[in-house]
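User: I'm preparing a small set of examples for a lab meeting where we compare how different chains pack in three dimensions. I only have the primary sequence for this one, and I'd like the structure in token form so I can line it up with the others. Please keep the answer compact; I'll paste it straight into my notes.
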Amino acid sequence: MVDREAFEARKRAFVERLEREAAQGRVDGDILPLLRLLNRHPDIYTTSSCSGRIMVAETARPSFNKGRGFRPAAKWHHPVAPGQIAAAASGIDDAWLMVRGAILHVAVASARLARRLLEIGRETGHKHSGVIAVNRAGIFVEILGEERLDIPLKRRGRVVADIEAAAAMANKTLTLAKLRLYWLAAMLEAELFGARAPPGEEIRAAVRRAASCLDELA
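Assistant: Understood. Below is the structure token output for the 218-residue chain.
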């Protein structure tokens, strides 16, 4: 199914691109260690990723595929202040605040490994994961976080949302997405490199406690 020579050639190209873009500051800092870890495995290479983001977009309605009529106005990979969101939406007639969880694209050399990555992804709350392509250069797996939030900020030039409340909701959603990403990273390190796996129930309880604390702060 997978041609080893093609797999190795593509892996070299993507690893070189990752390090080049990292040197240019174009890779999310909180996912770079995981990408480098995965690329150490002989049967894996990463292609694209995002650790999760908050975004203000100019659009009449939210579009997951960023199609026609969709323009990102600002994006952050960390919690943001209400003033930053308001500033990004200023001058836009139709604005949405959007949050997306982590997304990780990896190529693997075997169906067995692809299946195991998907199992770990779903176990750690990345429930919308799946195989998206198969060719000579690898089996391509998408691990996708379940966190997603879409809040209309402005409609035809009129503010239609409480910016402070929207910011609090966005920051909570992104923080939970990051916690799931760190859990995923720990489980992958355990599975692929023999590190100690964190107890699943303890991690789930910690995520629930974090969500409760964030509710109290909102």
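A couple of notes for your slides: The mean pLDDT is 90. Strands lie at 44-50, 53-58, 71-76, 95-100, 103-108, 130-135, 138-144, 148-155, 158-159.

User: Perfect, thanks.
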